[in-house]
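Hi team, as promised in this morning's meeting, here are the two structures we talked about. I've kept the exact order from the run log so nobody has to guess. The first one is mostly here for context; it's the second one we should focus on when we meet again. Sequence first, then the predicted C-alpha cells.
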Amino acid sequence: MEITDRKNGSVRRAKGGMITMPFIFANEICEKLAVVGFGANMISYLTLQLNLPLTKAANTLTNFSGTASLTPLLGAFISDAYAGRFWTITIASIIYQIGMICLTISAILPKLRPPPCKGDGQVCQEANSGQLAILYVSLLLTAIGSGGIRPCVVAFGADQFDEKDPKQATATWKFFNWYYFCMGVSMLVAVTVVVYIQDNVGWGWGLGIPTVAMALSIIAFIVGYPLYRNLDPAGSPFTRLVQVSVAAFRKRNLPMVSDPKLLYENQDLDAPISVAGKLLHSKHMTFLDKAAIVTAEDGIKSSSTPNLWKLNTVHRVEELKSIIRMGPIWAAGILLITAYAQQGTFSLQQAKTMDRHLTKSFEIPAGSMSVFTLTSMLATIIFYDRIFVPLTRKLTGTERGISFLTRMGIGFAISVLATFVAGFVEIKRKQVALESGLLDKPHAIIPISAFWLIPQYCLHGIAEAFMSIGHLEFFYDQSPESMRSTAMALFWMAISVGNYISTLLVSLVHKFSQKPDGSNWLPNNNLNRGKLEYFYWLITMLQVGNLIYYLFCARLYTFKPIQVHSTAQDYVEEHEDVELKTHV
C-alpha cells in the first residue's frame, strides 16, 4: 500500500503487510528447527554422548522443559512493558544463538564430552562437572531465548496487519494459518532430516545445521526492520490489571452509578494502550466498574492524571474484564494437549511392538510415527485455507468463513474421535498378540502393521490444525492490544499445563488401577498385559466432558467490546498526512 504525503507530494509505502512475512517466518522456522531437532533426540545425546544415567537424563529434560515453559511469560512481560516485540525477538534470538553455538561446540570438541563408551562391559565414564556445566548453561540460554521468541513472533507477525485498514483487518486469520503451516514444516524436517543426521552422520552436523540456520534467520529478521510495523510498548500490563483490582476493592462499598456514561474516561491517558480502538463498557462483572467511579477524593479536577490505584478509566477496567473472560476458553484447551501428549508416550510404545517395515530392508523408527500427525496437520491447513474457508464464506457471509470459536469446537470434537479410535486399535493389537502367542513377550514384534496407528495420529493432526490455530486467533483477537505478547505466552502455558496434566493423569491411573496380583492398566514392563484401551477411553470421556464445557463457555462468551477509531475513509485521510503513531 502506497501513501501520498500532502505536504510534499512524495509517495511512501505503509509499513507492515504481507511483504514482512518471509522475514518473520524465517525466524520462527529456524527456531522450531533448532528446538525440535535437538529436543526430539535429546535423550539419545544425554545418554549416548554424555553417558548420563537414564534417570538423570530424564530429570535434565524435565527441568529444561519446565524452565522453557515459564520463560515465555517473562519474555512477554518485557516485550509488552518495555522493549517492544522487535527488540525482544532480536535479543532473544541472539541469546538462543549463543546457546546453540555452545551446544554445537560441545558436540564437536572431544574434550567437552566424556570418552565414548565401547559397550564391551566396561563402566562408562559419565560427563564431569565442567562438561555438565556447559550443557546446563547452553540449555538455560536456549530456554531464555525461546522465552522471548515464542510469545512475540506470532503477535509481531499479526501486528503487521493494521486493524484500522479495512483491506488488512481480515488478513490476520490467514497469517495464523500460514504461521502454523511453516512451524509444522519445520518440525517435520526436524524429526526426519535433522534426527537422521544426528543418528547417522554425527551430532556436530546434527546441531551445526540448525545453528547456522538460526544465524541466517536472525540476519534475515533484522534486514526486514525498515518494513516492519512496530508498536510501541505501553508500560507494564500486569501493573494496570493490579491497579484496577485494587481500585475496585477500595470502592467495593460504593453504590453503582445509574448510567455507565458517568464512569471515568480519559482518552489522552489511554492513547498509548488503545491505538487500534477504545474498549467500551460491558455489562458483565460490574463489581470491577467501581474502579471507574469518580469520587471527591480522587481529585481529578486538579490533575489530568488521577491516582490509578484509586481511579481507573473504563478502557483499563475492560482490559481486566477481557483477560478474565478469556480464562474459561483458555482452560478448555488444556485437555486437548493432554490427549495429544499420548503420541509421544503410549502411542510410541504401541508402535515399538508393531511391524513398521515399509519394505523388507526399511523400517520406520517408532519415534518418526509423528510424521503422520504433522503431514495431516499441514494438509488440513491447506484444505482449510484453500477449500473450507471459500465454501463456508458463501454460507456465512464472513471473511474468515467461520469464527475462531467454531473452529476450536471442531478441533475438540475431532480430538474426541482420535482417542476413541485409539482404544479400539489397542484392542486389535492385543488380540493379534494373543493369537500369535506373544502376549507375555513385551519386546517381541507383533505381526500387525503399525499403519493401524495412522488414523489416531492423523486425527490428532487434524484436530490440532483446527483447535490450536483457532486458539491462537482467539488469544490475539480477544486480548487487550497492549497485552498480546502476554496472551501468546498463555497459549504456550496451556501446552505446558496440558503436558503436566498428562503426567498427573498417568500417575493416578497407574496407582489406582493397581490390583493385588500386580496387574495394571499401564504396566511398566509389558504393555500387552495392560488395559491401555481403558486409559484411552478415560481420556475420551474427559474430552467429551471438556467439549460440553467448552460449548457452554463459547455460548456464553462475550466478545471484546471495541470501538475502532477510524472508518475506512478516516483511515485513508489519516495516513495521507502522517505515519501511524505506532511506528518506531
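And here is the second protein, the one for discussion:
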Amino acid sequence: MFKRLLASILLIISANGAIAGDGYQWRNITVGAGGFAPNIIFSPAEEGLAYLRTDMGGAYRWNKKLQRWIPLQDQMAESSYFGIESIAADPKDPEVVHVAAGMYKRNPAAMLRSFDRGEHWEIVPVPFRMGGNEDGRGLGERLAIDPDNTDSLYFGSRHDGLWHSRDRGASWHKVKSFPHPGLGLPEERRTTNAGISFVVFAGESVFAGVADRQSAGLYRSDDDGKSWQKISGGPALLPVKAAVGGNNLYIAYSDNIGPNGIKAGAVYKLDIRYGRWTDITPLPKRAEGGFMGISTSRQDPDIVAVSTINRWRPRDTIYLSHDGGRHWRELESHSTRDVSNTPYLYWGNEDSDFGWWIAGLAINPFDEREIVYTTGATVYRTQNAAADKLLWRPWVAGVEQTAVITLTSLPAGPELLSGFGDISGFVHEDFDRSPQRMLTDPLFANTNTIHYAAQAPNILVRSGTPPHRAPKGPGTTPVPTLAWSEDYGKNWKPLTVPPLKFGDTTKRYDQTGDNAITVSADGSTFMFMAPVPQVSRDRGRHWTPVEGLPLQARPVADRVNAKVFYALDFANSEIFVSRDGGATFNPQNTRGLPEGIRMDEPTNREQAWPLLAAPDREGTLWLVSQRGLYHSTDGGRNFKIVKSGITVELMDFGRPAPGKNAPALFAIGSRDGLRAIWRSDDSGRHWLRINGERHEYGRRFRTIAGDPRHFGRVYVATDGRGIVMGEPAR
C-alpha cells in the first residue's frame, strides 16, 4: 500500500515537473501534442478516465483531477515500445489497462499490462510483430477484452493471425481456427500488412475485421473463438474500424489502410441478430477519400459518428447521426475552433484547420455530448455536440508527441529555439505555454538546422524543407528553404540562392531542403552548403563560391573570430581553415585524427554535424567520431583523443561549472551498452549520467543543446516525446 501511495505521489509531482532523478529534474518544454495520435480510448468503467495512443510517443492517461494527460512510459528504455499498436481499458476494473506495443515489424514487440492505470507495467514479450508507426496505424483497436470474462483477451496481429490470452495477457496462444493465419513478415523494408484491423465483442459474439486484401472481410465467432465464419455481404472494401451500438455493428471501410493513399470508402451497418447489411454511407458517396474513425453512444445505440480520412477536397470532416445512419449531420461546416492554447495550429494563417488524418474518433460513454477526435497534429474535443455551432478545443495538456530535429539555446534573447518535423519549429519564451511564435516567413515542414552568430546572437539562419502542401509544378513559385532573422528568431526573412552550375549540371540547391546554412560569429557572413559552399555578405542578395575546398565540404564558423571558418575533409582526415571570412580555404596539415573517418560524415540532412567550434576561445574544435571524441585547441592543426569512458554520439556546450572557464559538455552517448544523457565539467575527461531510470524516454534521443546562461541546464530533442529539459535539482 505504501509503495503504491508513494508511486502516486511521485507521479503527481512529475506531472508538475518537480521530481529529481539522479540529481536532476526533468520536464517537457510545452508545445502541446504536435504529432499523430491514431486513437483515443475512453474507459467504460469510470467516468473521466481515458487513454491516448500515439504512433511514436507512447501511451497517455487522462488525469481528471490534474486536468492533464500523463505520459505512461517515460521510464521505459526500449524504443520500440513507444509505437503503440492498440490499447484496451478493462470494461469492469478501471485500474486495469492493456497495451500492445511495437514500433516497426523488425523491432521487439510486447504486451504491457498494468493494474494501477499505467503507473507500473508488466512487460510480456510476444512472438508476433507489430507496427505502431507503420502504415495502417490508424486502424481499429486490435486488442479487445471480453466484457463477460476479463481474463480473456484477443489480439489481431498484422502479420500472424489472431491470438488469445486466457490469463489477463500473461501468456498468448495463436487461434488456429481463425481463417486468416496472417501473411508473415514482408521482406521489403518499407512494406507492411494490415492483418486483423479490429476485434470487438458484441453480445455473445466476437467479431474481427481483416484488412489484408486476400482475405478482407468481417469474421464472427459465437463459441468463444472455437470456430469462425466469414460474414457474406458488405462492400468490396477493407474494414478498418468498427463500433457496437445495441444490436448493430457499425463498420467504417476504406480502399487502403492509410493514413495516406485512401481514395474511396463507405460506412455500413450490420444487424448482428439477423445478418442484414445496410449501406449508411454519408452523402456525397463519391467524395474523395474514405472513412476510418467510428464511435457510438452508450446511452443511445442509434447515435453514431464517423470521420472521413484523406479527403483533401474539399476537406476532412465528421458526420453525426441520431437515427442509426439514416440521416447525417456534417460537422466541419458547423464548427469553430479555439486554439489559443496551442497557436501553432494556425500554421501562419488567420484560422485553424479542422484537421487531417482523422483516424481516432470517440463519443464519451458517460456523456454523448462530448466527442473527441484525433488528427495528424492534435486532439480536438467538443463538449456540446448538440449545439448549432460546435466549439472544438485542443485536448492536449500534457501531451508532447513530436519528433524534434534541432535545438539552439541562445546566450541572449529567447532561451530556446527549436526545429521540428512536420511543424516547422518555435521560439520558446515561456516553457509552460505553447509557443506564441512559430518559425514562419517562410514556414517549413521540417526545420533541420538553426545557427546563431555567437557574438551577435540576434542574427540567426535556418534551413528546412518546404511545407507538405507547398505548390508544385509549372508556373508555381517554389517555397524557400532558407531564412534569416535579426531579432533573435522572432521574425524571419526568406533567403534564396541562384542556380549553381557544377560540371554539366545546373541546379537550385536552395529548394531541396537538403543543404544547411551557417553564419559567422559577428553575423555579417552567411554560408550556404551547396556542393561548393556559397558566401553572402549582404543578407543573401549576392552569393559567391568559396575557393580551396573539396566538394561537399561543410564549413563551421569559429565562435569567437568572425573571419575564421573550418571544414573537415572526411575522405582525408584533414581540416581546412579560412581566415578571410570564408572566401578561401587552405589545408592545415592536420595531425591526430585517425584515417578513414568518412564513416562519421552525416548522410541525412537531419543529422547533427560532428565538427563543433567551442564558444570559449578561438581555435577550439571538437570532433564527435565513432572512433572517439577528439579535441583541438589550435584551430585544427593538432587533435587529441579524449579518453573518457563513454562513446559520444552527439554533443553541445553549456555554461561552465562554478569556478571553471571551459564550457560544460553535454552528450548523448553510451557506456557499457547504456545509452544515456551525460554531462562533463572537465572537458570530457569524466562524465556524469544525468537522466535516471524514470527518465529514459525510450532512449529516443535525436540531438542535444546546452544552455549558455544556466549551469547544468540541458535541452534534449526526442523522437516522439517532444523536448525535455533537465537541470540540477534544487
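Starting points for discussion:
Confidence is low (pLDDT under 50) at residues 1-21.
The radius of gyration is 27 Å.
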